[in-house]
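Weekly sync, protein design subgroup
Attendees: M.S., D.O., the rotation student, P.L. (late)

Item 1: inverse folding check
M.S. brought a backbone from last month's batch and wanted to see whether the design step gives back something sensible before we order anything. D.O. pointed out we never logged the input encoding, so this time it goes straight into the notes. C-alpha coordinates as presented (335 positions):
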Protein backbone atom coordinates (compact mmCIF):
# COMPACT_ATOMS: atom_id res chain seq x y z
CA UNK A 1 0.00 0.00 0.00
CA UNK A 2 1.26 3.47 -0.91
CA UNK A 3 2.20 5.92 1.83
CA UNK A 4 1.63 9.11 -0.24
CA UNK A 5 -1.93 10.25 0.44
CA UNK A 6 -2.76 13.40 -1.51
CA UNK A 7 -6.22 14.90 -2.09
CA UNK A 8 -8.34 13.10 -4.69
CA UNK A 9 -11.04 14.85 -6.72
CA UNK A 10 -14.15 12.68 -7.12
CA UNK A 11 -16.49 13.90 -9.85
CA UNK A 12 -20.06 12.68 -9.45
CA UNK A 13 -19.38 12.15 -5.74
CA UNK A 14 -23.03 12.88 -4.91
CA UNK A 15 -24.14 10.01 -7.12
CA UNK A 16 -24.59 6.32 -6.46
CA UNK A 17 -21.16 4.90 -7.26
CA UNK A 18 -19.28 8.15 -6.62
CA UNK A 19 -20.58 8.46 -3.06
CA UNK A 20 -19.46 4.91 -2.30
CA UNK A 21 -16.05 5.72 -3.79
CA UNK A 22 -15.72 8.75 -1.50
CA UNK A 23 -16.35 6.51 1.50
CA UNK A 24 -13.86 3.89 0.30
CA UNK A 25 -11.18 6.53 -0.28
CA UNK A 26 -11.80 8.09 3.12
CA UNK A 27 -11.73 4.65 4.77
CA UNK A 28 -8.31 4.12 3.15
CA UNK A 29 -7.06 7.49 4.43
CA UNK A 30 -7.27 9.61 1.25
CA UNK A 31 -8.53 13.20 1.58
CA UNK A 32 -11.39 13.67 -0.90
CA UNK A 33 -12.91 16.69 -2.65
CA UNK A 34 -16.23 16.26 -4.47
CA UNK A 35 -17.65 18.02 -7.50
CA UNK A 36 -21.15 17.21 -8.70
CA UNK A 37 -23.70 19.26 -10.63
CA UNK A 38 -26.54 17.65 -8.61
CA UNK A 39 -28.56 16.92 -11.74
CA UNK A 40 -28.97 13.29 -10.65
CA UNK A 41 -26.89 13.28 -7.45
CA UNK A 42 -27.93 14.40 -3.97
CA UNK A 43 -26.06 16.80 -1.72
CA UNK A 44 -27.01 14.59 1.22
CA UNK A 45 -25.20 11.65 -0.41
CA UNK A 46 -21.81 13.37 -0.18
CA UNK A 47 -20.06 11.78 2.79
CA UNK A 48 -19.14 13.93 5.77
CA UNK A 49 -15.68 15.47 5.64
CA UNK A 50 -15.42 15.88 1.88
CA UNK A 51 -15.41 19.51 0.65
CA UNK A 52 -18.19 19.81 -1.93
CA UNK A 53 -18.54 22.01 -5.02
CA UNK A 54 -21.78 22.16 -6.98
CA UNK A 55 -20.00 22.37 -10.30
CA UNK A 56 -20.22 20.74 -13.68
CA UNK A 57 -17.07 19.02 -14.95
CA UNK A 58 -17.69 20.85 -18.21
CA UNK A 59 -16.88 24.12 -16.45
CA UNK A 60 -13.14 23.89 -16.99
CA UNK A 61 -12.28 27.19 -15.39
CA UNK A 62 -13.94 26.34 -12.08
CA UNK A 63 -12.54 22.80 -12.11
CA UNK A 64 -9.04 24.20 -12.60
CA UNK A 65 -9.48 26.53 -9.63
CA UNK A 66 -10.58 23.55 -7.50
CA UNK A 67 -7.64 21.42 -8.68
CA UNK A 68 -5.22 24.18 -7.71
CA UNK A 69 -6.92 25.17 -4.45
CA UNK A 70 -6.84 21.62 -3.10
CA UNK A 71 -3.56 20.53 -4.63
CA UNK A 72 -5.36 17.58 -6.21
CA UNK A 73 -3.09 14.64 -7.04
CA UNK A 74 -5.61 12.36 -8.75
CA UNK A 75 -9.04 12.51 -10.34
CA UNK A 76 -11.68 9.80 -10.13
CA UNK A 77 -14.22 10.62 -12.79
CA UNK A 78 -17.71 9.22 -12.16
CA UNK A 79 -19.86 12.13 -13.35
CA UNK A 80 -21.93 11.27 -16.41
CA UNK A 81 -25.17 9.83 -17.71
CA UNK A 82 -25.75 6.11 -17.34
CA UNK A 83 -29.05 4.94 -18.79
CA UNK A 84 -28.68 2.82 -21.92
CA UNK A 85 -32.21 3.29 -23.37
CA UNK A 86 -32.09 7.04 -22.72
CA UNK A 87 -28.85 7.20 -24.72
CA UNK A 88 -30.66 5.63 -27.67
CA UNK A 89 -33.41 8.28 -27.43
CA UNK A 90 -31.09 11.20 -26.78
CA UNK A 91 -27.57 10.43 -28.05
CA UNK A 92 -26.38 14.04 -28.04
CA UNK A 93 -26.95 14.24 -24.28
CA UNK A 94 -24.55 11.30 -23.87
CA UNK A 95 -21.91 12.66 -26.23
CA UNK A 96 -22.11 15.92 -24.30
CA UNK A 97 -22.17 14.61 -20.71
CA UNK A 98 -19.89 11.61 -21.15
CA UNK A 99 -17.55 12.68 -23.92
CA UNK A 100 -17.39 16.46 -24.43
CA UNK A 101 -17.40 17.32 -20.71
CA UNK A 102 -14.85 14.60 -19.98
CA UNK A 103 -12.61 16.22 -22.57
CA UNK A 104 -12.82 19.49 -20.62
CA UNK A 105 -12.00 17.68 -17.36
CA UNK A 106 -9.04 15.83 -18.90
CA UNK A 107 -7.77 19.10 -20.33
CA UNK A 108 -7.99 20.68 -16.85
CA UNK A 109 -6.02 17.72 -15.44
CA UNK A 110 -3.30 18.21 -18.06
CA UNK A 111 -3.17 21.98 -17.62
CA UNK A 112 -2.90 21.71 -13.85
CA UNK A 113 -0.47 18.79 -13.94
CA UNK A 114 -2.68 16.23 -12.16
CA UNK A 115 -0.70 13.02 -12.64
CA UNK A 116 -3.32 10.27 -12.13
CA UNK A 117 -6.78 9.71 -13.62
CA UNK A 118 -9.24 6.90 -12.85
CA UNK A 119 -12.14 6.68 -15.29
CA UNK A 120 -15.55 5.02 -14.92
CA UNK A 121 -16.09 3.15 -18.14
CA UNK A 122 -18.54 0.43 -18.90
CA UNK A 123 -19.04 -3.06 -20.24
CA UNK A 124 -21.32 -1.39 -22.77
CA UNK A 125 -18.17 -0.64 -24.81
CA UNK A 126 -18.19 -4.31 -25.86
CA UNK A 127 -21.65 -4.21 -27.42
CA UNK A 128 -23.06 -7.62 -28.34
CA UNK A 129 -20.11 -9.88 -27.54
CA UNK A 130 -19.02 -12.81 -29.72
CA UNK A 131 -18.17 -14.96 -26.68
CA UNK A 132 -20.22 -15.31 -23.51
CA UNK A 133 -17.43 -13.68 -21.50
CA UNK A 134 -15.60 -10.57 -22.60
CA UNK A 135 -12.01 -9.75 -21.80
CA UNK A 136 -10.25 -6.41 -22.17
CA UNK A 137 -8.92 -7.72 -25.49
CA UNK A 138 -12.41 -8.39 -26.87
CA UNK A 139 -13.49 -6.13 -29.72
CA UNK A 140 -15.12 -2.89 -28.63
CA UNK A 141 -18.19 -2.35 -30.77
CA UNK A 142 -20.81 -0.50 -28.72
CA UNK A 143 -24.40 -1.02 -29.81
CA UNK A 144 -25.73 2.07 -28.06
CA UNK A 145 -24.62 5.71 -27.74
CA UNK A 146 -23.95 5.25 -24.02
CA UNK A 147 -21.22 2.69 -24.72
CA UNK A 148 -19.82 4.75 -27.59
CA UNK A 149 -19.74 7.93 -25.51
CA UNK A 150 -17.60 6.15 -22.90
CA UNK A 151 -15.39 4.46 -25.49
CA UNK A 152 -14.59 7.84 -27.03
CA UNK A 153 -13.47 9.10 -23.63
CA UNK A 154 -11.31 6.01 -23.20
CA UNK A 155 -9.62 6.85 -26.53
CA UNK A 156 -9.03 10.45 -25.45
CA UNK A 157 -7.45 9.32 -22.20
CA UNK A 158 -5.07 6.92 -23.96
CA UNK A 159 -3.97 9.58 -26.43
CA UNK A 160 -3.56 12.21 -23.72
CA UNK A 161 -1.56 9.78 -21.57
CA UNK A 162 0.79 9.13 -24.49
CA UNK A 163 1.31 12.85 -25.04
CA UNK A 164 1.39 14.22 -21.47
CA UNK A 165 2.64 13.49 -17.99
CA UNK A 166 -0.35 11.49 -16.76
CA UNK A 167 -1.24 7.85 -16.19
CA UNK A 168 -4.73 6.39 -16.08
CA UNK A 169 -6.82 3.42 -15.10
CA UNK A 170 -9.97 2.75 -17.10
CA UNK A 171 -12.40 0.55 -15.20
CA UNK A 172 -15.09 -1.10 -17.30
CA UNK A 173 -18.01 -1.78 -14.99
CA UNK A 174 -20.44 -4.58 -15.47
CA UNK A 175 -23.81 -4.24 -13.70
CA UNK A 176 -23.32 -2.37 -10.46
CA UNK A 177 -25.82 -2.99 -7.66
CA UNK A 178 -26.21 -3.21 -3.89
CA UNK A 179 -25.33 -0.67 -1.23
CA UNK A 180 -22.76 -0.01 1.46
CA UNK A 181 -23.01 -2.93 3.93
CA UNK A 182 -22.77 -0.44 6.82
CA UNK A 183 -25.77 1.48 5.45
CA UNK A 184 -23.82 4.70 4.92
CA UNK A 185 -24.70 4.98 1.20
CA UNK A 186 -26.94 3.44 -1.41
CA UNK A 187 -28.70 4.12 -4.68
CA UNK A 188 -31.15 7.01 -4.34
CA UNK A 189 -31.73 7.61 -8.06
CA UNK A 190 -35.24 8.79 -8.78
CA UNK A 191 -36.98 7.14 -11.73
CA UNK A 192 -34.37 4.36 -11.68
CA UNK A 193 -34.25 1.93 -14.58
CA UNK A 194 -31.64 -0.56 -13.36
CA UNK A 195 -33.04 -4.00 -12.68
CA UNK A 196 -32.09 -4.60 -9.03
CA UNK A 197 -33.07 -1.08 -7.96
CA UNK A 198 -36.40 -1.39 -9.79
CA UNK A 199 -37.04 -4.84 -8.32
CA UNK A 200 -36.36 -3.85 -4.69
CA UNK A 201 -38.65 -0.83 -5.15
CA UNK A 202 -41.36 -3.21 -6.38
CA UNK A 203 -40.73 -5.56 -3.46
CA UNK A 204 -41.45 -2.67 -1.07
CA UNK A 205 -44.60 -1.60 -2.91
CA UNK A 206 -43.05 1.54 -4.43
CA UNK A 207 -43.84 0.14 -7.89
CA UNK A 208 -46.69 -2.05 -8.99
CA UNK A 209 -44.60 -4.55 -10.97
CA UNK A 210 -41.34 -5.28 -12.74
CA UNK A 211 -41.24 -5.49 -16.52
CA UNK A 212 -39.15 -8.29 -18.01
CA UNK A 213 -37.69 -6.84 -21.18
CA UNK A 214 -37.49 -9.73 -23.63
CA UNK A 215 -37.79 -13.47 -23.19
CA UNK A 216 -36.35 -14.47 -26.54
CA UNK A 217 -32.62 -13.85 -26.05
CA UNK A 218 -30.20 -16.68 -26.71
CA UNK A 219 -29.70 -17.29 -22.97
CA UNK A 220 -30.57 -20.14 -20.59
CA UNK A 221 -34.09 -18.87 -19.86
CA UNK A 222 -34.48 -16.35 -22.69
CA UNK A 223 -34.05 -13.28 -20.44
CA UNK A 224 -31.02 -10.97 -20.36
CA UNK A 225 -27.98 -12.22 -18.44
CA UNK A 226 -25.67 -9.76 -16.66
CA UNK A 227 -22.67 -9.85 -14.34
CA UNK A 228 -23.96 -8.02 -11.25
CA UNK A 229 -21.16 -6.56 -9.11
CA UNK A 230 -21.58 -5.21 -5.59
CA UNK A 231 -20.85 -1.49 -5.46
CA UNK A 232 -18.53 -1.92 -2.45
CA UNK A 233 -16.35 -4.41 -4.34
CA UNK A 234 -16.33 -2.05 -7.32
CA UNK A 235 -15.15 0.98 -5.36
CA UNK A 236 -12.55 -1.14 -3.56
CA UNK A 237 -11.05 -1.80 -7.01
CA UNK A 238 -10.89 1.98 -7.59
CA UNK A 239 -8.84 2.60 -4.46
CA UNK A 240 -6.47 -0.22 -5.41
CA UNK A 241 -6.22 1.16 -8.96
CA UNK A 242 -5.28 4.56 -7.57
CA UNK A 243 -2.56 3.00 -5.43
CA UNK A 244 -1.25 1.11 -8.48
CA UNK A 245 -1.12 4.33 -10.54
CA UNK A 246 0.82 6.10 -7.81
CA UNK A 247 3.27 3.24 -7.43
CA UNK A 248 3.91 2.89 -11.17
CA UNK A 249 3.56 6.30 -12.83
CA UNK A 250 4.64 4.91 -16.21
CA UNK A 251 1.88 2.30 -16.29
CA UNK A 252 -1.74 2.76 -17.39
CA UNK A 253 -4.41 0.06 -17.27
CA UNK A 254 -7.79 -0.94 -18.63
CA UNK A 255 -9.57 -3.43 -16.37
CA UNK A 256 -12.93 -5.17 -16.42
CA UNK A 257 -14.80 -4.97 -13.14
CA UNK A 258 -17.08 -7.94 -12.76
CA UNK A 259 -17.16 -11.33 -11.08
CA UNK A 260 -17.12 -13.49 -14.19
CA UNK A 261 -20.55 -15.00 -13.67
CA UNK A 262 -24.02 -13.99 -14.80
CA UNK A 263 -27.60 -14.00 -13.59
CA UNK A 264 -30.67 -13.79 -15.79
CA UNK A 265 -33.49 -11.34 -15.15
CA UNK A 266 -35.62 -14.20 -13.81
CA UNK A 267 -32.83 -15.34 -11.47
CA UNK A 268 -32.46 -11.81 -10.12
CA UNK A 269 -36.21 -11.53 -9.53
CA UNK A 270 -36.17 -14.92 -7.78
CA UNK A 271 -33.39 -13.61 -5.51
CA UNK A 272 -35.43 -10.50 -4.68
CA UNK A 273 -38.46 -12.66 -3.84
CA UNK A 274 -36.28 -14.95 -1.71
CA UNK A 275 -34.64 -12.12 0.23
CA UNK A 276 -37.78 -10.01 0.69
CA UNK A 277 -40.04 -12.97 1.41
CA UNK A 278 -42.61 -11.64 -1.06
CA UNK A 279 -43.54 -12.13 -4.67
CA UNK A 280 -43.05 -9.28 -7.12
CA UNK A 281 -45.53 -9.03 -9.95
CA UNK A 282 -43.69 -9.75 -13.22
CA UNK A 283 -44.90 -8.55 -16.60
CA UNK A 284 -43.43 -9.75 -19.84
CA UNK A 285 -42.59 -6.93 -22.26
CA UNK A 286 -40.69 -6.67 -25.56
CA UNK A 287 -36.93 -6.23 -25.64
CA UNK A 288 -35.56 -2.78 -24.89
CA UNK A 289 -33.64 -1.26 -27.76
CA UNK A 290 -29.87 -1.46 -27.40
CA UNK A 291 -29.89 -4.41 -24.95
CA UNK A 292 -27.41 -7.25 -25.57
CA UNK A 293 -28.54 -10.76 -24.50
CA UNK A 294 -25.59 -11.70 -22.32
CA UNK A 295 -22.72 -9.64 -20.92
CA UNK A 296 -20.30 -11.35 -18.53
CA UNK A 297 -16.85 -10.25 -17.51
CA UNK A 298 -13.59 -12.13 -17.93
CA UNK A 299 -11.92 -10.80 -14.80
CA UNK A 300 -8.53 -12.57 -14.81
CA UNK A 301 -6.77 -9.31 -15.69
CA UNK A 302 -8.07 -7.26 -12.77
CA UNK A 303 -7.40 -10.16 -10.39
CA UNK A 304 -3.81 -10.43 -11.66
CA UNK A 305 -3.16 -6.66 -11.76
CA UNK A 306 -4.62 -5.45 -8.46
CA UNK A 307 -4.70 -7.13 -5.05
CA UNK A 308 -8.50 -7.13 -5.42
CA UNK A 309 -10.48 -9.62 -3.40
CA UNK A 310 -14.21 -9.48 -4.14
CA UNK A 311 -16.19 -9.95 -0.94
CA UNK A 312 -19.87 -9.68 -1.90
CA UNK A 313 -20.44 -11.87 -4.98
CA UNK A 314 -23.49 -13.61 -3.58
CA UNK A 315 -26.57 -12.33 -5.45
CA UNK A 316 -28.73 -12.63 -2.32
CA UNK A 317 -26.26 -10.42 -0.44
CA UNK A 318 -26.25 -7.82 -3.22
CA UNK A 319 -30.06 -7.79 -3.24
CA UNK A 320 -30.25 -7.76 0.55
CA UNK A 321 -28.03 -4.65 0.81
CA UNK A 322 -30.07 -2.93 -1.93
CA UNK A 323 -33.25 -3.82 -0.06
CA UNK A 324 -31.88 -2.57 3.28
CA UNK A 325 -31.06 0.79 1.68
CA UNK A 326 -34.45 0.98 -0.01
CA UNK A 327 -36.19 0.45 3.34
CA UNK A 328 -34.52 3.50 4.89
CA UNK A 329 -36.60 6.64 5.29
CA UNK A 330 -35.57 9.33 2.80
CA UNK A 331 -32.77 11.53 4.12
CA UNK A 332 -33.55 15.16 4.80
CA UNK A 333 -31.91 17.33 2.17
CA UNK A 334 -28.77 19.19 3.27
CA UNK A 335 -28.44 22.68 1.92
N1 LIG B 1 -34.30 -5.30 -17.19
C1 LIG B 1 -35.60 -5.74 -17.13
N2 LIG B 1 -36.52 -4.95 -16.50
C2 LIG B 1 -36.20 -3.74 -15.94
C3 LIG B 1 -34.86 -3.31 -16.01
C4 LIG B 1 -33.94 -4.11 -16.65
O1 LIG B 1 -35.93 -6.82 -17.62
O2 LIG B 1 -37.09 -3.07 -15.39
C5 LIG B 1 -33.29 -6.17 -17.82
C6 LIG B 1 -32.59 -5.56 -19.01
O3 LIG B 1 -33.29 -5.79 -20.20
C7 LIG B 1 -31.23 -6.27 -18.94
C8 LIG B 1 -31.00 -6.44 -17.46
O4 LIG B 1 -32.28 -6.39 -16.86
O5 LIG B 1 -31.31 -7.54 -19.52
C9 LIG B 1 -30.12 -5.37 -16.85
O6 LIG B 1 -30.62 -4.10 -17.23
P1 LIG B 1 -30.20 -2.75 -16.49
O7 LIG B 1 -31.06 -1.67 -17.02
O8 LIG B 1 -30.20 -2.99 -15.02
O9 LIG B 1 -28.69 -2.55 -16.89
P2 LIG B 1 -28.01 -2.56 -18.36
O10 LIG B 1 -27.42 -3.94 -18.55
O11 LIG B 1 -28.91 -2.06 -19.39
O12 LIG B 1 -26.87 -1.49 -18.21
C10 LIG B 1 -26.05 -1.47 -17.08
C11 LIG B 1 -25.48 -0.09 -16.88
C12 LIG B 1 -24.46 0.21 -17.90
C13 LIG B 1 -23.48 -0.89 -18.10
C14 LIG B 1 -24.17 -2.18 -18.31
C15 LIG B 1 -23.14 -3.27 -18.40
O13 LIG B 1 -26.49 0.89 -16.93
O14 LIG B 1 -23.75 1.34 -17.45
O15 LIG B 1 -25.04 -2.42 -17.23
O16 LIG B 1 -23.73 -4.52 -18.55
F1 LIG B 1 -22.73 -0.67 -19.17
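Designed sequence read out in the meeting:
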Amino acid sequence: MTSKKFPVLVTGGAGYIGSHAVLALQDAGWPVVVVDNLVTGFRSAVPYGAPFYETDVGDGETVRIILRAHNIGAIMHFAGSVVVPESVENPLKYYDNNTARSRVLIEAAVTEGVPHFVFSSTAAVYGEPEASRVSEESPTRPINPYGMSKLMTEAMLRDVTAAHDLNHCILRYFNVAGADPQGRAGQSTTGATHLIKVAVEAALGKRSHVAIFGDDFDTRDGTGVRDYIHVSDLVAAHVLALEALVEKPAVSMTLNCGYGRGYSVLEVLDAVDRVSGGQIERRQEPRRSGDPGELISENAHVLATLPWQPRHQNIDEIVSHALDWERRPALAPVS
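Discussion: The pocket of UFG is lined by residues 82, 84, 122-124, 174-175, 193-195, 198, 210-213, 224, 226, 265, 288, 291, 295 (CB under 6 Å). The first strand starts at residue 8 and ends at 11.
Action: P.L. to compare against the previous round before Friday.
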